[in-house]
C-alpha cells in the first residue's frame, strides 16, 4: 500500500522545481495529474542535450522527473480548457505550480480563483524570489543561487565561484514545497480548509548554505563569505587530499589524540612532537604549513595504501568518487537510492535515481516513468470528471484537448 | 488559526546540525519538539556542524536549530535516566535520532523495542548511509556521503581540487520534514506507524539528481570530469565571466534565440553578426569564439554596470554575490527568510528564517533556543505525568538537570 493513495494533485508545472515537488508525492502514491499544453507539453520534453551531450533515445530529464504521473493535455488559452481544469480542481486535494503569476491569472488558475472553486484545496506555488521580489525577471536556478552567497565562498581564491550542481536549488525548493503541501494537508484536518503554500528558489537556496550563512549572520566573520583555499582549512585534519592516484576525504577532529594517530599512519611519528602542530590552536594557526606537509606525504602513495591504514584505525575517510562510481555503488542500490525501471521509449530497463526516503511499511515505488503527452486526457475527463464521450469529441475538434 | 503541526509531539535524540534542522522545520510549524540532551553535552547537544564553521561559532548555529524547541537534560549513563528517555520516546508521536543503530539498540531505542511500547510510533532515523547494505554502519558524516555522490570532482574548474560544498546534508533536513509528514498522514488514515530513514547518501543523491540521472542514462565521460568555463555547451547559459572589478557575472539564457537580440548590443556585437545569427552557430559552430568575445566584453565594465544592464534589459543574468548580499537584503527579511531578534544574552541576532510560507498556518518564532535542560521538569510532567515530588526526587539523584 502506498501512503498517499487517494490524494489527487493537479500539477501545472514545467522544467524541474515544480515537477520534482509533485514527483516526490507521486512516488508515494498521490495521483498526480500533469496538466500540459497540447502543443509540445512541458518544455522539459524538448530537452535535447545536457552538458552538450545529446540525450539520445529517451529524454530522462522529463521521463524521470515526471514518473508515476498522468498527463492531461489541455489548452488553457481557451475558456473551455480553463473550465476543464476548474472541474478537475473541484475533484482534487492540491494544485501545484511553478508558472509565472501573470500566466496563472490569465488562465484563471491563480490562488484566488481556485480557492473560490474549492476551499479545501491546498495551493502549492514555487516561485523564484518569494512573495516580495526585487525583480520580475524569470528565475533560473543558477541566477538565483548567485544571489544567496553560497557560490561565492567556494572554489580556490581567484577561481570562479562554484555552482552547487545542475538543478541544485530547484531540488531544494521542490523538496520544501512538497513538505509544505503535506503539512497543509495535515493542517486541513483541523483547519477545515486549504491554504496557499509558497516556496521560492531564493529562500530555499539560502538554506543550502545554512551552517556557514548562519554563522556569518551571527558574527559578520568575513572568512565565512570569502573563498578559502583548501590549504588554509579551519581544521587541517579535515580536508581533501590528493594521493598518488586519486583524491581522498579525511575527517578527523582537530584533537591531539587524532593528530598523533594520524602521524603514526603516515609513518611520521616524530611530527606528533613538532611544536608547530602540538595543539589544536597551533595546528589551526599553521594550517597552510601543515596542509602542505600532509599533501607531500599523502601524494607519495596510492589511495588504497592510505585508506586501508586509516580504516584500520577507524578514521572516517573515503575516496572521492565520480558519478560512474556512484552508478556501481552497492550501498546506493541496497537502499533503493538507485533503481531500475522499464522505459517504453527504448523497450528496456534503465537505471534511474530511486527513493530518497525509506519508509518501512509504505515504501515508495516506481510504477512507470513519465507519461506520453496527453495520454490520460480521456480517462480523466470521462472517469474522474464525468464528461461524456460526446464532450470529449467536441473538445478535440476545437483543440481544447489533444 | 493554529499551526500546521499543532498536536504533534516529537522527541529527538540528535547531535548533528542537519537532523536538528529537520526537526526545527517541524517546530517552526507548531510541532512540540523536545530535544533530549544527554547530561553534559555542549551547546544543547549540537556537536557536529560544518567544517568551515570555527568551533567558537557553533553556539550561534544552536540558536537556529534549537529555536521553538524544548530542552530536557537527562543523565543517560544511569539506567533510570535511560528508562525516562525510553518513556519520553514512547510518549511522542514521532521519535527522531541521528545516533548510530548500535547506540540506539544499547539504549533500548531501536525500532522494534520502541514499537513494543508504542505500536504506532513514527520512528525516524537520520543516518549516514541508510539501514541496508555493506556500509550501513559508517559514521553519519556529510563529507563521507558527499564523496560518494560523484559531484565533488565535477563542481570546480579543471585542475582544481574537488569541492566539498556542504549542501547535501540540507536536502536531508528537508527530507526529514517530508518523510515525517508522509508517515503522519499515513498514520492518521490507518493508525499505523513505521520507520522512516533519511540518509546523507540519499540526500546527496537527491540534491544531485539531475546530474545523477543524466549520467545513468547517458553514461558520457563528460559527466565525470570538470568542464572548463571556456568550454561551456552554451556560452550564454551556465557560464561565468569576470567583470572589470574582479567579480563574476553568471548568465542563464538557455533559449539563445530569445535573448541574443537583447544581449548582443550590450556586449558591442551586432545581433545580425553572421558568426552568431543562429542558436546552432552560437552554441556549436562558433561557440568558443563567442565565449572569447563575451569574456572580453564583460571585462570591460564593473559588476554594478552589468547587474543594472541585466535588469534593465530583462535578461537572466546576475552578479555572484557573497553572504553580505542576503544579510543586507530587505526582501530576504520581508519574506521572512532572515529574522532579526533581540536575544537576552547575545543581543541583536539575525537568524535564518522560514523558507516555507503558509497563508493560514504560518511558521512562527515562539521561543528562542532553550538552555540545556530548561524544560526538563515541564516535559516530564506533561508527557509522562510525573508529579512535582517525582521530578524533585530524580533531580536529587542527579538523573535530571532542570
Question: Could you characterize the architecture of this molecule?
Answer:
The complex is a heterodimer of chains A (402) and B (402). Helix content of chain A is 39%, strand content 15%. In chain A, the strands form 4 sheets. A 6-stranded parallel beta sheet of chain A has the order 5-2-1-6-7-8, with helices on both faces. Chain A has helices spanning 17-26, 60-65, 79-90, 101-106, 111-117, 141-148, 168-191, 201-208, 210-219, 256-265, 280-285, 287-298, 303-312, 323-327, 330-334, 377-384, 389-398; strands at 8-12, 31-36, 49-50, 53-54, 69-73, 94-97, 122-127, 196-200, 238-242, 247-251, 317-319, 338-343, 348-353, 358-359. With 402 residues, chain A is of the alpha/beta class. Chain A starts with 7 loop residues before the first strand and ends with a helix. Chain B is elongated and about 85 Å long. The longest helix of chain B has 23 residues, at 168-190. With 402 residues, chain B is of the alpha/beta class. Chain B has 17 helices and 13 strands. The chains are: A alpha/beta (402), B alpha/beta (402). At the A-B interface, β3, β4, α2, α6 and α7 of A face α1, α2, α6, α7 and β6 of B. β14 of chain A pairs antiparallel with β6 of chain B, so a sheet runs across the interface.
